[in-house]
Structures are given as C-alpha cells and as structure tokens.
Amino acid sequence: MEHQTIVEALLLGLLEGLTEFIPVSSTGHILLAGHFLGFQSTGKSFEVLIQLGAILAILSVYFGRLWKMATDLPSDPRTQRFVLGILVAFLPAAVIGALAHDFIKTVLFESPRLICIMLIIGGFVLLALDRMALKPKYHDVMDFPLSLCLKIGFFQCLAMIPGTSRSGATIVGALLMGTDKRSAAEFSFFLAMPTMAGAFAYDLYKNRDILSAADLPIISVGFVAAFITAVIVVRYLLNYVSRHGFALFAWWRLIVGAVGLAALMVWG
Fold first, then answer.
1. Which secondary-structure segment (H or E) carries 259?
2. How many independent structural domains does the chain possess?
3. Is-contact 23 246, C-beta < 8 A?
4. What does the DSSP 8-state code read for residue 107?
5. How many Cβ atoms sit within 10 Å of the Cβ of residue 201?
6. Alpha-carbon gap, residue 33 to 165, rounded angstroms
7. 105 and 43 in contact (C-beta within 8 Å)?
8. pLDDT score for 207
9. Taking the model in full, what pTM does it have?
10. Which domain, by its residues, includes 61?
11. Which of 84, 131, 158, 213 reaches 20 to 30 Å from 43, CA-CA?
C-alpha cells in the first residue's frame, strides 16, 4: 500500500467525520477532494464504507439515550412512536436508494461539476432559510407525528444527488414543516443511523466481489479518522445550531462550490 494513498485516506476520513452531520454534504466534499487528489477507490466504496465511523460516533455520543430507548421500547408508547417515526422516515431512502444505486454510483458520483453546483444551490437555500420568520410547532423529536417523519424522509432522498447534503435536506425539510432548529438537527442525527447503516450494508453487498484485502487498510484508516472527527462534531453541533443558525454552513458551501468550479475550469 502506497504511503501517499494512506495519507489521502486519512485526510478524506477526517473530512467525512467533519462534514457528515453538518449541512454541507460530506459525500460531495469527499468526491471533490478525491477528484483533485487523484484518489480512486474500488467501486467508489471507500466514500460509503467509511460512513460507518460516523455512525459509531452517534452511537457512542447517544449511547445512554439509545439504551434508555431500548429498555423503554416494550412498554412506552411515546418511545414506540418515535422509533416507528424513524423507520417511516428511513423508508423512502431505502426504496429509492436501492432502485437507483447503480445510477447514483456510476453517473452522479462521477460528476464533480454537478457537486459544485448543488453545493452553491444548497448554500443559497440555507441563507434564505435563516432569514425566514418560521414559527416552530415541534420542539421535541419524540413528539414528531408520523406524517411529518415521512415528509422528512422524502426530503432526505434529495441527498442522493451528491453535493445536496443528507443532513441539510432533512434539516431544511423539518424546519419548513414546523420544527425548531435543535429538534430538526437532532432528528437528522437519529435518521442518519438506519440510513447510513443501510447504505453501508447495501454497498458492501453490491461490491463484495470486487473488494479485496488490499482495500482494508485504506478503508480502516478512513473509518477511524471519520469516527474521531464525527464524535467532536456531534457533541457540539446542536448547541451551535440552536444559537447561531446555518449561515456559516451556507457560506462554507458557497465558497467550496465556487472554488471547486473555478478549479475544474482551470485543471479539469
């Protein structure tokens, strides 16, 4: 394994953990960075499989709360409704993602110009959202009705276009339908668990014949790096969003998208 490739995997893993749960599109950032670094993974699986590190970051930070939910689930109707809501929200992405998997990986993942355009569009959406005088009706993720969960699930499907952002799509959808900023971000965290775990398992299954032991060191390095940075982001993001909104992430998207387009015009 080339030292350079390991360093690239480390950098991309850090980028994954840093961007997975903020509305800037982790996949878009990794694909763009990989494009300019010349990083090539087998079947574009590295970019999906290292998300397991981010999943485990949520599990570690929310372990106490998840454990309480697990013990309350058999007897507590409120917990049962919440878990059902997460599964309902996950369903659209599970169905559409499975049907469109090959198109997403072979067409959308191979279009860095599309990623830059979606980053810029998403930046303007977040800026507009921050300026809206929205009046939230829901302040606790445990109280989201199933109909709201399903609508957020459909918004999540927009993130199949790289550069859109899974967390961005779910947070924007939730806010437009009456949640406050903190509960929107928190619901996005919980929805990430089945969504990313499902994407991980499905991608691993689809690429089982082309992945080899030689891919393991690269994926492992990216996985560990993603876990470490994602833990830090998950611990502090909710409080930041509650106080400051999404303007920082909007400008981040606009700058990265514009710089990416300029770099593509110069270097291709």
1. helix 247-267
2. 1
3. yes
4. T
5. 12
6. 16
7. yes
8. 79
9. 0.85
10. 3-267
11. 158
